[in-house]
Automatic annotation (TrEMBL):
Membrane topology listed for this record: Multi-pass membrane protein
Transmembrane domains' residue ranges: 36-57, 69-88, 94-112, 164-185, 191-208, 220-241
Taxonomic classification: Bacteria, Bacillati, Actinomycetota, Actinomycetes, Streptosporangiales
Keywords: Cell membrane, Membrane, Transmembrane, Transmembrane helix, Transport
Organism: Nocardiopsis alba
Record-given protein name: Probable membrane transporter protein
Amino acid sequence: MSVLICVFVVLTVAAMVRIAAGFGFALVAVPPLALLLDPVSAVVVAATLAVPLNLWVMARDRAHVDRRGASLLVVCTLAGVPFGLWALNVLSESTLLTLIAASVVAGTLLVWRRVRVPGGMVAVAGMSALSGASFAATAIDGPILVAGLQGSRLADLAPRVQRATLAVAFSATSVATLVGFVFGGQLTPEVGGLVLSGAPALLIGTFIGERLFRKLDAELFRRTILVLLLVSSVSVVTRVVTA
């Protein structure tokens, strides 16, 4: 029961951060989930619960999607998903935990430093495929894809258009990954129970996040979350080193 309560709290905070800061659901959720559960279950729970969040953002902002950019992102992210599913199926728990730790640290640094990957749309295609693979293997995709976009024409889109366009890619990746979990046998009864118990956490986190978004200093909140992410990253790395 205590684990279930901890998982619920983690998912509530992750959803709150995603709505209030505009990023970070998996970055916040996966490290503590990997400490509470086994690495595969942590990835599957976080990735599965990302599906409704991504679909909700996409539906809300559908009128603002850059269709040309979204088409490229969807094709390339989906191309990477099978590689991530393969990694999730074949890697040992310790290796997967190491991969999660590396992804969290890299993702946090990409967001913190606002890294721009040069290379235009070619770089976008490559980073999109890497993002799809990373999501399927670790549930972390946003920072990789955003970094790729920053050196292309898509970075010049209005913020709402860029968010809507990214939401299309994230939705496609998360749905495809969920299908992969079904066929790969990762959606076990235990994981299904955690997902169902975590669903109300998304609603609560979204409710709180919307209100925080209106009241808090966005930049201060962003920096606070990034510090928490670094602490979380260190905790996972420590577990890897001491395992």
